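Milestone 3.1: sequence recovery, worked example.
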């Protein structure tokens, strides 16, 4: 797990983020909120392409790592590369979880879970808020 001291490449004030993000995007990306299950635009998407951070545009996940987890949020078994995301311990809500943030701008994306038994190459589920992402379809 990475340390909090690592500085993101893209740094903006809250006012600067508010100027570019909708209130709902700001709540999830900058305040670690969560969209309601089954409401996100990418939960059932099968489109081939690359999922980018909605805040800064960094490429985070490939569509070929997306899988049906039936949890209510888009799920991926790995990021495009380990350096694309930061993993931080999260003990909010009385649980021990691992938060996933964009390495480039430090925006909240979701959480990663291990050992749930999904038939994926990594046995990990990156459970990511749709509102944290934009999909760039393959040509």
């Amino acid at each position: 797990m990475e340390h909090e001291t690592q500085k993101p490449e893209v740094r903006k004030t809250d006012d600067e983020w508010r100027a570019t993000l909708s209130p709902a995007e700001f709540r999830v990306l900058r305040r670690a909120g969560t969209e309601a299950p089954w409401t996100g635009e990418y939960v059932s998407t099968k489109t081939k392409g690359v999922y980018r951070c909605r805040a800064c545009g960094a490429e985070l996940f490939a569509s070929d790592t997306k899988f049906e987890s039936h949890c209510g949020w888009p799920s991926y078994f790995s990021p495009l590369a380990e350096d694309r995301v930061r993993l931080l311990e999260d003990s909010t809500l009385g649980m021990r979880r691992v938060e996933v943030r964009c390495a480039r701008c430090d925006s909240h994306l979701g959480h990663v879970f291990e050992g749930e038994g999904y038939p994926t190459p990594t046995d990990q589920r990156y459970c990511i808020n749709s509102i944290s992402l934009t999909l760039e379809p393959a040509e």
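The chain has two helices and nine strands. The longest strand covers residues 108-114.
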